[in-house]
């Protein structure tokens, strides 16, 4: 997540219990890395330092049982945590609240015409591409079960559609 977003939104650094100041971490670059965990539905945030070390900032609850993908959507200025069929194909948009914590804001589900499958990634087109209140979205699937029951082979696919601006 870009340092500018974290500071502009008043994120509280869990290590200092004060407003996040990127200057406190001079080797981390220009943002923090958030990783989603499938096994507990949290995000872990890290500063990845230029000399190969890292700083662990903590854990963020998404309110979901699992997280298969996490991205920063520059258009909405939100972190998006995606959960596959484990959570009914949801995408939770997260923001920094008035207390400086990253919290879930709104959760969207995939369009009803899409399969409830192993959809584990979401990419959103930039907001300047919005037309009539929508922009392109692409979902990735790494577990297509259409190869027949009992098959040990899985396919993969990309699905496209639109998402609200």
Question: What does the model show?
Answer:
There is one protein chain. This protein is mainly beta. The protein has one helix at residues 3-8; strands spanning 12-13, 18-19, 33-36, 42-48, 54-61, 69-73, 78-83, 90-96, 102-109, 119-124, 134-144, 155-164. The strands form four sheets. A four-stranded antiparallel beta sheet has the order 6-7-8-9, with no helix packed on it. A three-stranded antiparallel beta sheet has the order 3-4-5, with no helix packed on it. A hairpin with a 6-residue loop joins strand 7 (78-83) and strand 8. The mean pLDDT is 89.
Notable characteristics:
four-stranded antiparallel sheet, globular, 4% helix, 165 residues, 1 helix, mainly beta, three-stranded antiparallel sheet
